[in-house]
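hiii, so i know i said id send this last week but things got crazy w the move. better late than never?? heres the sequnce for the chain we talked about at the cafe, plus the structure i predicted for it. fair warning i was half asleep when i ran it
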Amino acid sequence: MKILRVSCSNRGQASESFRLSQAIVEGLLGGEPHASLIERNLGGMPIAHIDTGYAVALASATEEYEGVVAGTLEVSEALIRELEESDCLIIATPLHNYTVPSVLKAWIDHIVRVRRTFRSTQTGKVGVLRDRPVYVAVSSGGRFSGEAAGQPDFLTPYLRAILETIGLRSTHFFTVEGTAFGPDALAEARRAAQHALAGYFA
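okay and structure toks below
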């Protein structure tokens, strides 16, 4: 099994989202000890946003640009192949301003590509990638779920919808919330996340 981890915090391994994602990795390795882990560190090495050539190619007739891979289209192709070759995807991300950070949005713009990872039809978009488990490890300074929620959450519905667009429908979210409320709140958030993971991987 190949596990692809996409990490989005510029705090790297010190981030709560990475810490939570590592617990997910360990849970997966418990069932598949010989699995390999591929790292895509967007926080430390952000990818370029899509360029003019990419935009023109996607908006143009398929015949004219069929097979053309240059500029950020080349980056897009590499990222899509990396995803296609994985059996499992882990996204480790903070919640930024109620939604995904810009580095994750850039990755999404590369992998959600018409005529490559989805088809447009008269009844809507149809994903063409093979479904596989997706685990999203989310950290947030505030609380966005449950009775204690104090802010909107546009991250989880967006990620669920955008991943379904390309065919990835088996998405599971784990969170560490309220990290800005002091050491006790952080410790409790970590315990809650570990409890959720223990129940999932039991």
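btw Residues 1 and 35 are 5 Å apart (CA to CA). thought thatd interest u
miss u guys!!
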